[in-house]
Amino acid sequence: MSLCPELNFNVDHGYLEGLVRGLKAGILTRSDYHNLAQCDTLEDMKLHLQCTDYGALLSTGNEDLTVSLLDNRLKGNIHTEFRCLRAHAPAPLSTFLDYISYSYMIDNLVLLITGALKHRDVEELLPKCHPLGMFDQMAAVGIAHTHTELYSAILVDTPLAAFFQDAVSEASLDEMGAEILRNKLYKAYLEAFYAFCWEMGGATRDVMCPILEFEGDRRSFIITVNSFGTDLSRGERRALFPSCGRLAPGGLQLLAGAEDHEQVKAVADYYPDYRLIFSETEDGSSKTLEDRFFEQEVRLNALAFLDQFHFGVFYSYIKLKEQEARNIIWIAECITQRQKSKIDNYIPIF
Amino acid sequence: MGAFFRSEEVCLVQLYLQSGSAYNCVSELGELGLVEFRDLNPNVNTFQRKFVNEVRRCEELEKTFTYLELEIARSLSPPLAVSPPSSVPSAPQPRELMAIEEESERLARDLREVSRNRDNLRNQLTRLSQYRGVLIQTHPLTVSQVPSSSLETVALLDSRQDIRLSFVAGVVHPWKVPSFERLLWRACRGYIIVDFREMEERLELPDTGEVIQWTVFLISFWGEQIGQKVKKICDCFHTHTFLYPEGTMEREEILDRLQGRILELKTVLSQTENYLQQLVCRAVAALPQWKVSVKKCKAVQAVLNQCSPSVTDKCLIAEAWCPVRKLLLLQSALLEGSRRNGSGADSFYNRLPDTSTPPPTLFHTNSFTSGFQSIVDAYGVASYREVNPALYTIITFPFLFAVMFGDVGHGLLMTMVALWMVLRERDPKLQTSDNEIFQMMFGGRYLILLMGLFSVYTGAIYNECFSKGMSPFPSGWHLQPMFQHYNWSDDTLRGNQYLTLDPNVTGVFLGPYPFGIDPIWRLANNHLTFLNSYKMKMSVIIGVIHMTFGVCLSFFNYIHFNQLSSVFLVLIPELLFLLCLFGYLVFMVVYKWLVFGPQDSDRAPSILIHFIDMFLFVKNKDNTPLYNGQLLVQNVLMVIALASVPVLLLGKPLYLYYNHRRRARVGEERPLVTESSSINTLQGDVEGGGPGDAKELDTADVFMHQAIHTIEFCLGCISNTASYLRLWALSLAHAQLSEVLWVMVMRISLSWQGYLGSVVVVVVFSFFAALTVSILLVMEGLSAFLHALRLHWVEFQNKFYSGTGYKLHPFSFSSILNPL
């Protein structure tokens, strides 16, 4: 069975792969974006979205059409599709899909912790959480005061517990700590996910590992850039870098020592892909570093559909769909705020 | 039938719709389903079109309707299937639309309010019932706990004065109990006592209407800090907590009060429910009509969005394809539309001259012809005004199928199934069946009926019924004369397994069987050899006739499209080639059948050898000629056939080329003519216009196409003739398979004796019947169907049918309301 996974891939996962490829065909194209960008009001956008796979997404319900409603609906849409995939998934794929949802769980967790530190009401925060990362114990996060408490009381039952082992400390939670916690969890998560995909072997490894490597490297770069001007020491910073990327270990070592943007760029210069990303940010275009990374991510994820018999398509589909939601929201924001000049800054997918 | 031979004549009309009455005119056209509108603003986005606001209004209305539908589905008891509206309303006038808008809005508002009220009441009721459940369930717990805890309190009083036992009581969703309990335990480190009890009553979940059995919990704890934590945890698991008085007396008091309020609420709730039902019933009554109205309105607006406004903005200009026969109807529809509006200016149409795009194809089909038309359409929709092969398919398709499926019994079964579908065709249950495969069969019921009937006919010719022969007439062969002539005795019969009947002995063969194949052949050991030779020749004859007919049909195309030259340069060479080679083969087969009888059968020549010799221009000494002067005739035919190939290859391109050159020269000399003709075309007087007048002739392209066509045709003649041999192969396979089924299954049961035998017959027969239906009827039927389809698509239609047209989809309300 392990000799040639392609042979019986379709027995268990053929239906879902077909489903996800069908869903992928519904991802908005350049001409769709072009049309959306011409809209003058959200109503126009709604009319146009009706011609796409979103269909009646916006035409039900009685609330006024706002950007936040649009956002909720889009997220809900992804959630519905994901739940459908997850409910039909048999063993290895179900774990894989769970891994996808863990990253959203981490984000939700950190959101709630920071909210609780600012004494915001949990009820107010819950709707802001991503529906993909909802879990039962989520709302109780506020009762924990230290990492250990958080772990032993609340998270020990959740799937996140496995990623928490490195992060357990007696230090009490604060805002900086929450951010560090997020990065630590993410590091553990990415490494575990990478190991899982590596274990899967076959086309899944070929497709997923580059994507996760890129994801890890992106986090390393972003952490470095964001840590300038904070009191994060080199050692601490080094501990946050995911080790599954292509930067490891030499590049990470250099990054840990970087002091300003120029040095980060110097590190990126050693790697052709990243050099492109960093050099493009220099040439005065309006795109930020983050956008460049997103573009590269979209490119990688779109590649996943070229292969067959692997799980990468599920990950890529969710990520592309998320990017699409970001694009639509960006266009909607530009329309409502009358910032037509910036409307073209979305990242087209296909 | 003339309308079925060629597609309907369709012309492009320009409709000038007065802006006041445009809506009515289009709605009138929608009712009739006459014309197909063309989109005149393909480059305009949906939201930039003229009537986008009206479309939006319709969408808003549909949104309201969706809400009403949801509410009906949720609240109506007993639930009922929405029946189609009894009378179909026409597209609503603006005033009517306003009324619908107003009324539906009001209804939705009322419904929303009442159902919100009802939900509130229900929620309250659930809460109260939960509270009651909590109090009842926890009562024994606290009663038993109080003394012990008071003891403890007494014991602890010495050390800590402020300590007090507090309770949190509530209900939690049963699924969440384990994680809730665990979290409580972990977070509070065991400084609490939790009790869980299942509530006796089952209550509805307010959001989903799901009925669940809630779990009651009672948490007893000491201290403020832990209390905070417990409350937070309770919040996070969406539990409902209730005030829990400590004294037993107080609790009983609350319980009494609760009982009273629950009763009160129940009466209020039932009244609200009644009112809600009334509202919902009103919605149920009105909704189907409204939906149809709004759908029609939306469709009309969508059409108006495709029109372009005129310069003066007084009218809209639409372009549409309309069948020429229906132009008067179009006129009257436009008048009717204008009249209904009461506006002075009439809408009118203007027939546009020939356009660059060929008009769409329209066939009027009925339930009988639609199945056959769809067989042809599946290959390709006929080009405009092209000969429609569907007309001939009606007979040839079932016939070719039956040649492969010849069996009286199987044919009868098929006929009966089809007849059942035909007789019950008005049954709505069959018409709206969800089963796709059944729908496909149902759509082709007449096709299946004809296939069945023809199978009975060919089965009778083959003399087969469930692989058994029938002898309605006495056989033409007789044994008695053999006995006399050869002095056969009973011993001879016993001693030999096979004896030959000699037809040359007088009295043995008295003449052919009156109909079909003599049943005596079933006993002969050369049965298969005889049938194979017969079926093979029959297949070739049928094939050559079918193909020749196809080639002849192209005559009507050439005549209609004014290509008289092609008749001489394409059709006649093709016919000559086909008939001189394969027509002659057929002639030889028939000639040999007629001329050579039993007495000179040993001297009969081989047709195959003759045919090969004909190609090689040689004479074979061993093979006696069929008739005198055969060699000469064959050589002449061969030369004609070969000579027609270069004509076919070069004739048409050269003709076109010279024609083009001549016309170009004439055009240079007299430019005035072209000018005046262009004015004519503008006015729409000239209908056809000269073909190839304006377009440049691409010589290489024409030569290339003709070369491909020639090669395809000449090679195709050979391969297609061979392809018709599938008729023989499949009919042989069918006969053999049914025989195998009889011999291997049914005959076993017949060899049993006694009572047991009858039981075995019943069992084996059921097996036999199942196999007959599944293998012989369904599987073999499908395979024969497929081959008949191929013979039509490839062998027949490629002789004359281009199939490059597109269908006319008229704008009609009925197709919008009941999409297929």
Automatic annotation (TrEMBL), chain A:
It comes from the Eukaryota. This is Uncharacterized protein. It comes from Dallia pectoralis. The lineage of its organism: Eukaryota, Metazoa, Chordata, Craniata, Vertebrata.
UniProtKB/TrEMBL annotation, chain B:
The lineage of its organism: Eukaryota, Metazoa, Chordata, Craniata, Vertebrata. This is Uncharacterized protein.
